[in-house]
Amino acid sequence: MPDNCAVSSRRFGGVARIYGEQALASFARAHVCVIGVGGVGSWAVEGLARSGIGRLTLIDADHVAESNINRQLPALESTLGQAKTAALAQRIALINPDCRVVCVEEMVEPDTVQQLLPDDSDWVLDCIDHGRAKVAIVQHCRRNKIPVITSGGAGGRRDPNRIRVTDLSRSQQDPLLAKVRRLLRENYGYSRDPRRRFGIPCVWSEEPAKLPVEATALSCAGGIGSSIAVTASFGFAAVAYVLEKISAR
């Protein structure tokens, strides 16, 4: 039988050398929930798994489609039709067999957030693109004192150098996050003072979204385009933020 400690040291020694042994131990104990494992979330899952995170809950109702191949990690000829969460769980097992993975093949809606999100999460990464569901996730996490980071829209952008991680109150050029801010103010009493922070980190891009000339729908399948250089970088930016916070505890 292999020595699990030795295996972990070999696989994640690079993580320990940059974050420290204590941080690596914290990563192994951490439980991170990723909601939405598409163009942004699938790469976030990869980054978390390769950093030695010990427990992952993956929530997404979608199955791998051919239109996902340009930007989503689990999308391959061999995985077409599979549940995205299941395809990622298989990959995680090959990266870190000690990582405990729970797959929830459900779509998060405002009225299902409480049921689907695990209460013992150390961090939640919100990588979905539905405004009202994002608001429900953020508010649920704030109410239950679960740290959360939310992703803005990565579609229509080509330059990963313009990605930023700031407080939600500071994002620009992002209609999705603007809608989240508006709904939080209208429904949950968040301050309208532009000088006040929300206390919610978010990933967004300073680059204005570029719509195709003939776009008829704001979807990656039929309208707005996407670049893996940006969608993956959104996911990795969220992971970097979460790892820093876990390592600092």
The topology string of helices and strands comes to HHEHEHEHEHEEHEH
Helices, by number, come to 8
Number of beta-strand segments: 7
Largest sheet: 7 strands, mixed
If you had to describe this structure to a student in words, what would you say it looks like?
- This protein is α/β, with parallel strands linked by helices and 249 residues long.
- It has a single domain, classed as 3-Layer(aba) Sandwich (Rossmann fold).
- Helices cover 39% and strands 13% of the residues.
- It is built from eight helices and seven strands, in the order H-H-E-H-E-H-E-H-E-H-E-E-H-E-H.
- It has helices at 4-19, 21-29, 41-49, 84-95, 113-116, 131-143, 175-188, 228-247; strands spanning 31-35, 55-59, 100-104, 123-126, 148-151, 163-167, 201-205.
- Strands 3-2-1-4-5-7-6 form a seven-stranded mixed beta sheet, sandwiched between helices.
- Helix 3 (41-49) packs across helix 8.
- The longest helix has 20 residues, at 228-247.
- It starts with a helix and ends with a helix.
- 41% of the residues are buried.
Describe the protein's topology.
Blueprint: H1 4-19, H2 21-29, E1 31-35, H3 41-49, E2 55-59, H4 84-95, E3 100-104, H5 113-116, E4 123-126, H6 131-143, E5 148-151, E6 163-167, H7 175-188, E7 201-205, H8 228-247
Parallel strand pairs: 1-2, 1-4, 2-3, 4-5, 5-7
Antiparallel strand pairs: 6-7
Helix pairs in contact: 1-2, 3-8, 6-7
